[in-house]
Amino acid sequence: MKCKAAVAWGPGQPLKIEEIDVQDPQAGEVLVRMVATGVCHTDAFTLSGEDPEGVFPAILGHEGAGVVEAVGEGVTTLKAGDHVIPLYTAECKECKFCLSGKTNLCSAVRETQGKGLMPDGTSRFSINGEPIFHYMGTSTFSEYSVVPEIALAKIHVDAPLEKVCLLGCGITTGIGAVLNTAKVEEGDTVAVFGLGGIGLSVIQGARMAGAGRIIAIDINESKFEMAKQFGATDCVNPKSFDAPIQQVIVDMTDGGVDYSFECIGNVQIMRQALECCHKGWGESIVIGVAGAGQEISTRPFQLVTGRVWRGSAFGGVKGRSQLPGYVEDYMNGKIEIDPFVTHTMPLEDINKAFDLMHEGKSIRTVILF
Ligand code: NAD
Ligand code: AHE
Ligand code: ZN
């Protein structure tokens, strides 16, 4: 079939709307009609050329929601008409990772996914016979995408897809990092670096966990109002202080926070986030994604004296087992999504969504197909 998609032809170039060919879903694959997709900073990161796994030309996008149009041979858990969220972290329920009980990182399709290909090593997208790469196994910047069955969460049919698409990455990542990775408890003190879709979702998760003090940190003070709405008790602009921000936070919190979260993708700030943690027990969770060749560093003494550095991917959430519950938590009012949608626009305008993100004017733009 033919459809419209936003194609990333090369690093640093604007996306171009193209008519593409989409091949039928093969064995174990599903054709999804996309209804809505968010634009996450990771899409911009890959488009910038900084992603070691970035391949071009590709169809980016990984925060979508849609409807099953057709299924390939052997697909048993989904049928046409089902409502789904594509998962960049699949869940096969059979691999060593899925069976470990220790992680949400499934290995079943990850290798080919990282190369921009379907599990059989080929692409379902092309233009004039030339293949276009998939992205994160999801490629949601297309009217139709082909996704492995094990990389689709079947969700409640009444959930508004133009909202719950944000559970495909940003909101789930932030809330999950607090509840699953850090396991924040009532009364804990939390610092959140970066107040985009991820950082604000961390704040939402921290409030759900009953955190006592939630310190929100950003150099763009226009983010502070929403941070407070989600539960931040203090908002701090590092530029307003002469002292390093980790020292400022240590001084504000009688020795440091119980948990900090880096939601920017800046390795210097990852260090600050670790070093603002309390001696003996403070834990810092890296969520931000940093470019090729970048490394984190700190004095080992920071770890010797009890601080812990962890990372979190998709909030530690197992997509097929747990994401439908997140959708229901939105429907029953336990999770807020609506305020995150600061802009909506058609696919034709998708480059504006990237501009708004880079200008710090949006939290999430949702593309409506
Ligand atoms: P965003 O662009 O919406 O937000 C980033 C925020 O960081 C902005 O508010 C910006 O003003 C702030 N910021 C930038 N530089 C800063 C600095 N020096 N000090 C303080 N604040 C600063 O991005 P997002 O969509 O929220 O994504 C955040 C990060 O999380 C990105 O690196 C993204 O790739 C990553 N991410 C990771 C996962 C995961 O599973 N680990 C999932 C989604 C996104
Ligand atoms: N491809 C990059 C890493 C990108 C990355 O870390 N991705 C996050 C999700 S970001 C979503 O917005 C993630 O889940 N990683 C785990 C995984 O399996 O990809 C690189 O450095 O190569
Ligand atoms: Zn994302």
Automatic annotation (TrEMBL):
Write out the catalysed reaction: a primary alcohol + NAD(+) = an aldehyde + NADH + H(+); S-nitrosoglutathione + NADH + H(+) = S-(hydroxysulfenamide)glutathione + NAD(+); S-(hydroxymethyl)glutathione + NAD(+) = S-formylglutathione + NADH + H(+); S-(hydroxymethyl)glutathione + NADP(+) = S-formylglutathione + NADPH + H(+)
Keyword match Zinc:
yes
- CDD domains, per database record: alcohol_DH_class_III
Q: Which residues form the Enoyl reductase (ER) domain?
A: 12-368
Coiled-coil residue windows: none
Cofactor(s) the protein requires to work: Zn(2+)
InterPro entries named among the record's database cross-references: ADH-like_C, ADH-like_N, ADH_3, ADH_Zn_CS, ER, GroES-like_sf, NAD(P)-bd_dom_sf
Name recorded for this polypeptide: S-(hydroxymethyl)glutathione dehydrogenase
Q: Please report the organism this UniProt entry assigns to the protein.
A: Marinomonas maritima
